[in-house]
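@channel anyone free to eyeball this complex?
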Amino acid sequence: MSIKVSYEKILDFVSKKEILQFEDKLQKAQKAINNKTGKGNDFLGWVDLPLEISPVIVKDINDTATALRMNSDCVVIIGIGGSYLGAKALIEALNHHFSSLLKTKTNPDIIFAGHQLSEDYMTDLLELLDNKDYSIVVISKSGTTTEPAVAFRILKEHIEKKYGKENAKNRIVAITDKSRGALKTTADAEGYKSYIIPDDVGGRYSVLTPVGLLPFAIAGFDISTLVEGAVEMREQNINNNSIETNIAFKYAAARNALYSNNFNVEIMVNYQPNLMFFTEWWKQLYGESEGKENKGIFPAGVSFTTDLHSMGQYIQEGLRMIFETVISVEKPKSELKVNSDSQNLDGLNFIVGKRLNEVNKMAELGTMIAHVDGGVPNIRIAIPELNEYYLGQLIFFFEYGCALSGYLLDVNPFDQPGVEAYKNNMFALLGKPGFEKQTEQINKRIGK
Ligand code: PA5
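replying in thread with the prediction:
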């Protein structure tokens, strides 16, 4: 079994011909990706990653995870962007919804830090960690990103005070570049257990490296099955050059046909709250890969039915520039039926005996019909169930679909030059050495 993509519900808005005409360009893009000849081709290491994760690597990651799990109530994962979202997405997708509140815990709590600069967040975290046994996984490919670097400086001091410098070393794992960056220098100097992010894998394509795999293993999940799913999807995506059957082709063609018809916003929709962070991961992947040279579909996300009571109004009747991509999970893990109530004061006896999932599915179907009627095209991605295997498939599918889409748009889907602008201003405002000229200029602009 595999995930499925269908675009029948966009055919009121674009013709099948408009979709199929992308086949030739997609075949060229597929060749460019597979043969590493397209834009940004030195960042295509993610394509072969699933094949490179050997049983030896899996065992090493699992051993490290076990060691951290044994001595920690919680593990703090430090990172931002691609060094954060993939791990968070995977863990949230499969974790018990209330894992941190469960009385009997089999897994440590996973806490994220370094993904913002909030003083109150960090203060609360330090207060929590005062009373917990914990470990740290610090992730930064460049090893110089400000947010995780600041968080690590503060938490390193805390963990060393708590356990002593020598013992703290066994509670810190670094995931970074093989030779460059301040984190690499620190990890070597301190002798931390370290993992490498390959040179040719960019941050947002790195979830199938230790960046995503180690946190996922620490949270108690099966990384080899995740990788198996990715391997399977890789086979489908890289070898099949038919727009009718390659689901990455179908997705890239459908969304680009819509984009050509001025549907500029793609909303990723889920009906399972544990997919909220999967949407965040997808937003980064597509937003950073496509949004450049004044081009690109704007990726947004909603969780239904929750957001039908907030964003639903805009989607139904606002500006007509939106299409939706719905991730539909076919089979829930559990079974819960609605029981009869003799008084029926809430009037809900008409759904007695139905599973909650059936009610959710009818909400999904009803919403799709309403939104299509309201002028919102609908792409559907069906996943048989939420588990490691299908998550692995989904990750590779979205990565490959993103690279194909970027090439259709004729941009480099593997760089992110626009991210530097805010950093330069922040460094100038903070008076970073080397930024003296920019400091003078920006101070003038803000009247300082
Ligand atoms: O996709 C990317 O490359 C970025 O989002 C990075 O992942 C993010 O900026 C964090 O970078 P680093 O891992 O170097 O700290």
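from a first look: Residues 80-83, 140-142, 145, 148, 202-204, 288, 416 surround 5-phosphoarabinonic acid (CB under 6 Å).
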